[in-house]
Amino acid sequence: MLQQPAQHPAREGETYQALTEARRALVEEGKLLAKIYNEPAVFEMEKDNIFTKTWIFLAHETELPDPGDYVVRRIVGDSFIVSRDEHGEIHVLFNMCRHRGMQLCRVDSGNTSHFRCPYHGWTYRNTGKLNGAPFQKEAYGKDGLDKEEWAMTPAPAVGVYKGMIFASMNADVPPIEEYIGGMGWYLDFYLNKTPAGSEVIGAPQRWVLDADWKLAAENFFGDGYHTQSAHMSTIKAGIMRVKKAAYFKDGVQYKVGPHGGMFIPFKPGSFFNYPQDVVDGMRENLGADQFKVLEEDSILPLNATVFPNLSFLHSAMAVEPEGRSIPYLTIRLWQPLGPGKIEVWSWGVVEADAPEEFKEEAKRAYLTTFGASGTFEQDDAENWRSVTRVAAGEMADHHYLNYQMGLDHVEPIPDEEWPGPGTAYARNFADFAQQRFWRTYFEYLLGQ
Ligand code: FES
Ligand SMILES: [Fe+2]
C-alpha cells in the first residue's frame, strides 16, 4: 500500500484508503502507522490539504522594526516577501515578477522602498504596487500597462497575532484570532508576558534535517516522556539542573482546538529564575489567572505547537558549570522540504523590556541548548532522523506505533480546577496532546 505516486490522490485511491484505515487505528486503538513519517504520496496530500489550507507562520514583527524592512519567507514551495511599508503596514507578497516570473527578491532580508526585477527591470513598491517598467511608453504605449492589474500578488490571507505574522494560501481560512482561539491563553506566556511583549534575537538560524516535520511538531505538542532518555546527557553535563528523571512526569499536558502543549514545575517562589523586573512585568501584564499558575501552582508552559508546524519552547538551562539556570524562549518552524525532509527555522526570543544583561544571558542559554549547535537540538534531531530513515522501508507499511500512554488511567483536571481553555491533564507522561495532533492531522489530510 501507499506505493501509488499520486499527485492528487482521489478519494477512492489506494493511498486514501490506507490513510482512512490509519486514522481508524489511531482513533479506535491508539496506534499510528509508521509509514506516515516518510511517504511521497502522503507528502503530496499534506501540501494540498494542510499547508495550503491553514495558517502558516512567516515572521515576527520585531524582525521588521523600521519602514522598508523586509524578509523573504516560504510556505512550502512558495516564496513570499514580508515587508513593512512607509506607513508601518505589513504586506505579504508573492515573490514572483508579474512580467516573466523571475523571483523578484533573492536575498533573505534588507531594507528598501522598491523591488526591481533582475530580468527586465520592472519595479514595484514595497506595498506590491507596480511602479513602472523600463521604456514603458516605447514598450507598451502611453496607457498600455495597467499598473493596478500588474501589481505583485498578495498572499490570499494575512493575519498578525500578538506580533506574529501568518499567511495562508487559503482565502477562506477563518481569521487568525479564531484559529488560535483558546491557545492564545497559553501563548501569552511566550509572547506577551510583560508590557512590551517579546522580541526576536537577530535573524533565525536555519538548517536542513532529514526528518519528517510531524516528528518535531508532535514532540513539541507534549512529549514529556523523551527528556529522561534522549536528553539524559544534558543532565549529566550539568546543563539541565534536574535531580530525578521522574521529574519529567510532573506538570500539565493540555490540548486546545487543534493545538497543544505542556507545563513543567519549577521551585516554588523562584519564578523560573526570571529577574525581578520581568516577574514584575508578568504580574502587571498577565491575567490574574495566568499569573496565579506561576505564583501558586509553580508551573509554566514548557513546549507547545500551533498546528501544523509552529512550535514554542520555554526552558531554563545553566551555561556556566557552577552557574544558575537561565530562562529563555525559542520559536521554531518545521518547514517541510519534501517527504522526510525539513528545514528547521529557529528564533531566540526574549522579553523586549527585560534588562540588557539578562537578554545576553538568555541568548547564550538558548544557543547552548537549541539552535543549530544546541545540545538538545542534536539529541532530538538524531532521533527524528532515525525514525524517518526506518519509516522509509517496506516493513513500515504495516508497522504500528504506540500512542496509548495515560489514555486509560489518567483523567482530565476538572474544568473548575484548571484556569486555561481546553482540556488539561496533571501528567506529562501521556499521549493526550499528541492524540489531538494526529486526529487534527487526519481530519485535514482526509478532508473530513
Ligand atoms: S521577469 Fe521581471 S521584469 Fe521581466
Ligand atoms: Fe527534546
Radius of gyration, Cα only, in angstroms? Answer: 23 Å
Q: Unreliable runs, pLDDT <50, ≥5 residues?
A: 3-10
Largest sheet: 8 strands, antiparallel
Strand content range: 25-35%
Strand order of the largest sheet: 12-18-17-16-15-14-13-20
Structural class of the helix and strand makeup? alpha+beta
Helices, by number, come to: 13
- The gross shape turns out to be globular
Q: How many runs of DSSP E, i.e. beta strands?
A: 20
Helix content: 25-40%
Give average pLDDT, whole number.
94
Molecules bound to protein: FE2/S2 (inorganic) cluster, fe (ii) ion
Measure the end-to-end span.
21 Å
Structure description:
By secondary structure, this protein is of the alpha+beta class. The protein has 13 helices and 20 strands. An eight-stranded antiparallel beta sheet has the order 12-18-17-16-15-14-13-20, with helices on both faces. A four-stranded antiparallel beta sheet has the order 5-4-3-6, with no helix packed on it. Strands 2-11-10 form a three-stranded antiparallel beta sheet. It is globular, with a radius of gyration of 23 Å. It starts with 13 loop residues before the first helix and ends with a helix. The structure holds FE2/S2 (inorganic) cluster and fe (ii) ion. The site of fe (ii) ion has 5 residues, from helix 12.
Structure described in brief:
The protein is of the alpha+beta class and 448 residues long. It is 29% helix and 27% strand.
